[in-house]
Write a structure and sequence with these properties.
This protein has 245 residues and is mainly α. The protein has 8 helices and no strands. The two termini are 19 Å apart.
Length: 245
């Protein structure tokens, strides 16, 4: 059965039967990364391996922001600041929604997940505007370096992901029916993890740009380590059933 919002109903016992069901994460036992009935959504940011993810994403964000603020500030400085803030928000949006499993939790989680991701998208758009204005003002080449190309692809995927996510949840009729909209939920989730990984790869590529090597001096190893730590915290919390596994 499905509720009026298109969120599948959860039958008691499904998630606890020999560790199977929607509460079973990729690693660990059922319930290891599940929101309890009486817990608020705020606990989802630290349930299970989320603490590891928080350490990783905050180290990455702090590394970027510290490098920017100890360097000469200019308009371009807003680009890494805004991009890292956007990735931080996206990571929080993922961590918030992962442990939900009841209809009420999913509805509340989806709404806040949407707000966090919308804020992230606006932040990323601002970062894109900054870099494009800077390129135009200095007659610079557009989308030439690996970082620029990866960045453009990642921006596009973020925008598509946001549009599809909003449409499938808030206006499922555009897919023909609520059931058809629900049938692509798993693809939305899968692509979300792919985009997060691509974001980290794009940041890693940024460490090889002339601006970073000459001014910011963010180390590639620091980005890789922080990104890996974040993924170690995020990926084990993936619910198998939510991906159709």
């Amino acid at each position: 059965m499905a509720s009026a919002t298109g969120i599948p109903e959860t039958r008691s016992g499904d998630a606890t039967n020999h560790g199977r069901g929607e509460q079973e994460p990729l690693l660990g036992r059922a319930g290891d990364a599940s929101q309890q009935e009486d817990q608020g959504l705020q606990f989802n940011f630290v349930i299970g391996t989320a603490v590891i993810a928080q350490v990783g994403i905050w180290i990455l964000t702090a590394t970027i922001w510290a490098s920017v603020f100890v360097s000469p500030l200019m308009l371009f400085s807003a680009h890494p600041l805004l991009n890292s803030a956007g990735i931080l928000l996206t990571t929080q949006a993922i961590l918030l929604l992962q442990p939900t499993h009841t209809p009420k939790q999913k509805k509340q989680g989806a709404n806040i997940h949407g707000i966090l991701n919308l804020t992230s998208i606006l932040t990323l758009i601002a970062a894109l505007v900054v870099i494009e204005y800077n390129k135009i003002a200095h007659s610079g080449a557009h989308f030439v370096s690996p970082h620029a190309i990866l960045g453009l692809i990642t921006y596009i995927l973020f925008f598509i992901q946001a549009i599809v996510g909003i449409a499938q949840y808030y206006t499922p009729g555009v897919f023909g029916s609520t059931e058809k909209a629900k049938s692509i939920y798993k693809y939305h989730r899968m692509s979300g993890y792919v985009i997060l990984i691509m974001s980290f790869v794009t940041i890693a590529a940024a460490t090889q740009t002339g601006f970073n090597k000459n001014i910011l001096h963010i180390q590639l190893w620091a980005v890789v380590v922080a990104s890996v730590i974040t993924l170690i915290g995020v990926l084990p919390r993936i619910k198998k059933q939510k991906l159709g596994l």
